[in-house]
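Quick one, tokens below. Sequence please?
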């Protein structure tokens, strides 16, 4: 049941009215474009047809060919950081999410004091909808997508779930159901393959929405994250692939490609396409042990080598002034916040505390990118490199700390950037056999690397020893960024998050009252440190069981 009241023949009745004598017809104000942001999970740099892949992606290839391919586009190496930077326009050091991901049992989420992209678009009159993977925390109801700017939500809250049953385990025996519609558990939708379910939901949203009101659709596919599961019909076309993981992975990518085709078709059918901007992006590098490939880039998901942070990306839109070209402009995932707000008719800049730039002129018209550098991250909690030191950083930076920065054509890495292998596509059935060692890097006794990414995009020639002047300059930039960093928020896991206390499903477990109680208890503990006295153990037990009974 589509939106049937739209007059397809006369979209503007005012334009058809005859103008009075001597009066020039005035142009109607441009309606803000519909924005469709499609984010895939763990799709490798090599895993798209137009990068020479053995995986079939005809829809992505066509959309990219007719739009603008982003071939100097950067994301983050793991899930939560990319998603947080997309929705806030801020680096991880400015949200407290510098370290790892948000685990299901952690009392942590996207900072509640920051205005998200959908909230900003709501202020500009947009209808906002999210379909897919959230992975930005849910321990309180205030952390849920519907409380962070989305009118509707269908998807999972945790990092990875079964594609059919939507079960997710965060350790032995800690398993629960994770498919939510709005703020309720969607038990009745279990059994449907998530990629197809999400594409179907997008079509339903478009069918019931008026094209006259601007729309923001955030489609965060679970695909192609593990577990490797695919409908049988997609596996059949890759039956000759010897590597089983690669075969399943390829089937999942092709299924996702067809889901994007269905979404594009729905945009055209319901009258949204001509005034739409479609953005496609991966969230991090591919996981090479699970079928993904970032060849010929170095590294994989979870690393700060190019294979972990160079993203797949393109923009497809009838509104582009220049189409069918490849952009080499430097773009980072934080740039989408100010870019999309600008397209919607609003303003967002560094004055709002953003780290992103409005890159629409660079994408649409081919102008120079306003971005000249990227802070990939500074993670003080990650395992310090054995061979790093303050002396190795010219006395201004401890090179044992994991950090990465790109300034101009130069890229600097310190600490432990992760496994630095060049891993060819897994075409052999016996992957990763002994032949892999031909491109495997031995553990280097160093903690500083410098590359000229423009001349050496595959990071094969380390220039740290030859250009100490550039190393010093980039270390100084790390110091400047680190002065603006807020403390890392990575709390311990809370046993009360166990799905058994929530009816067998993952969901919020902390209330506002409990948060206030914890803060008061913390203040009381700090006041009584000087003269501690033994507390009543039975009182603690009473409090615990009172809260437990409330939850049950």
């Amino acid at each position: 049941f589509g939106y049937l009241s739209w007059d397809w023949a006369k979209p503007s009745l005012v334009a058809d009215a005859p103008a009075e004598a001597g009066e020039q017809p005035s142009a109607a104000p441009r309606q803000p474009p519909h924005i469709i942001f499609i984010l895939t999970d763990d799709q490798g740099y090599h895993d798209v047809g137009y990068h020479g892949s053995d995986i079939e992606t005809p829809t992505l290839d066509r959309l990219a060919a007719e739009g603008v391919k982003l071939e100097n586009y950067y994301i983050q190496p793991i899930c939560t950081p990319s998603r947080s930077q997309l929705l806030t326009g801020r680096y991880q050091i400015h949200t407290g999410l510098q370290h790892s991901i948000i685990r299901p049992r952690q009392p942590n989420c996207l900072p509640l004091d920051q205005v998200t992209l959908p909230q900003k678009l709501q202020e500009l009159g947009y209808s906002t909808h999210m379909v897919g993977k959230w992975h930005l925390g849910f321990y309180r109801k205030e952390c849920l997508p519907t409380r962070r700017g989305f009118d509707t939500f269908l998807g999972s809250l945790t990092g990875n779930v079964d594609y059919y049953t939507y079960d997710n385990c965060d350790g032995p025996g800690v398993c629960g159901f994770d498919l939510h519609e709005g703020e309720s558990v969607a038990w009745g939708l279990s059994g449907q393959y998530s990629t197809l379910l999400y594409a179907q939901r997008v079509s339903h949203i478009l069918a019931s929405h008026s094209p006259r009101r601007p729309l923001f659709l955030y489609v965060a596919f679970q695909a192609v994250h593990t577990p490797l599961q695919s409908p049988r019909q997609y596996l059949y076309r890759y039956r000759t692939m010897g590597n089983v993981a690669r075969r399943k992975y390829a089937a999942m990518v092709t299924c996702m490609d067809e889901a994007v085709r269905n979404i594009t078709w729905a945009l055209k059918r319901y009258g949204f396409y001509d005034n739409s901007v479609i953005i496609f992006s991966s969230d991090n590098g591919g996981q090479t042990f699970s079928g993904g490939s970032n060849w010929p880039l170095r590294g994989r998901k979870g690393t700060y080598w190019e294979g972990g942070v160079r993203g797949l990306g393109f923009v497809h839109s009838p509104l582009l002034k220049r189409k069918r070209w490849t952009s080499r402009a430097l773009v980072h995932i934080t740039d989408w916040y100010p870019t999309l707000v600008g397209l919607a008719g609003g303003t967002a800049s560094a004055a709002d505390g953003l780290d992103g730039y409005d890159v629409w002129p660079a994408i649409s018209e081919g102008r120079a990118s306003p971005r000249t550098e990227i802070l990939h991250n500074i993670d003080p909690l990650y395992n310090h490199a054995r061979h790093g030191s303050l002396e190795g950083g010219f006395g201004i930076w401890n090179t044992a700390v994991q950090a990465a920065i790109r300034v101009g054509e130069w890229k600097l890495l310190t600490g432990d950037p992760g496994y630095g292998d060049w891993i060819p596509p897994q075409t052999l059935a016996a992957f990763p056999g002994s032949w892999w060692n031909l491109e495997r890097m031995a553990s280097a006794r160093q903690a500083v690397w410098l590359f000229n990414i423009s001349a050496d995009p595959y990071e094969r020639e380390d220039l740290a020893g030859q250009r100490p002047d550039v190393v010093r300059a980039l270390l100084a930039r790390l110091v400047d960024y680190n002065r603006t960093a807020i403390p890392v928020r990575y709390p311990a896991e809370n046993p009360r998050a166990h799905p058994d206390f929530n009816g067998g499903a993952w969901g919020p477990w902390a209330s506002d009252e409990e948060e206030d109680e914890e803060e008061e208890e913390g203040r009381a503990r700090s006041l009584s440190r000087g003269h501690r006295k033994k507390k009543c153990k039975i009182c603690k037990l009473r409090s615990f069981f009172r809260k437990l009974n409330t939850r049950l």
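The first strand starts at residue 34 and ends at 40. The chain has a mean pLDDT of 88.
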